[in-house]
Amino acid sequence: TKTAQTIKSHHNVGGLPEDMEFELIEPINTLFKDEVRALGIELGIPEHLVWRQPFPGPGLGIRVLGEITEDKLEIVRESDAILREVIREEGLERDIWQYFTVLPGIQSVGVMGDYRTYDHTVGIRAVTSIDGMTSDFARIDWEVLQKISSRIVNEVDHVNRVVYDITSKPPSTIEWE
């Protein structure tokens, strides 16, 4: 529709200085991610590069809702590394179009050992899609989700809860911000 462009701004578009002293050349800027991957395969680019996960232009800050601090960025880095490691170990990296962790700015009560905690919640977002215009949440086996959750709460400081986002796009978007 003619108003679709105002729904949400794209993270990787714009933001460059107006006074650049060179001409920006973007020969494939009209291609979707699936088309870029197909082109990469056709060009013989190594598969580990072609199939790597997209990363938002603004960086990890887009995956921390609310105030961005070094501690919160570290939680996202560590939890995301665990998610990626388990997804790779389980051989799911080709089945899931995009996956990442997000820090939604929610803290909750928990129990770690003999102590009450009031710590962060980490969200897991994993989607299947063809072109990113629409997506559905990835149907990851419960045992795999439990493994990811257990590792995150046991290995990442100041996290006592992990949630799994089961929302489609639309109505949500893939990224949380």
UniProtKB/TrEMBL annotation:
Gene3D superfamilies xref list: 3.30.300.10, HUPs
Keyword Aminoacyl-tRNA synthetase found: no
Keywords: ATP-binding, Glutamine amidotransferase, GMP biosynthesis, Ligase, Nucleotide-binding, Purine biosynthesis
Pathway of action: Purine metabolism; GMP biosynthesis; GMP from XMP (L-Gln route): step 1/1
TM annotation in the entry: none
GO cellular component: cytosol
The keyword Ligase belongs to this UniProt entry's keyword annotation: yes
EC number: 6.3.5.2
Positions of the GMPS ATP-PPase domain: 1-52
PROSITE patterns on file: GMPS_ATP_PPASE
A GO MF label: ATP binding
PANTHER family for the chain: GMP SYNTHASE [GLUTAMINE-HYDROLYZING], GMP SYNTHASE-RELATED
Function per UniProt: Catalyzes the synthesis of GMP from XMP.
Protein name listed in UniProt: GMP synthase (glutamine-hydrolyzing)
Lineage: Bacteria, Bacillati, Bacillota, Bacilli, Bacillales
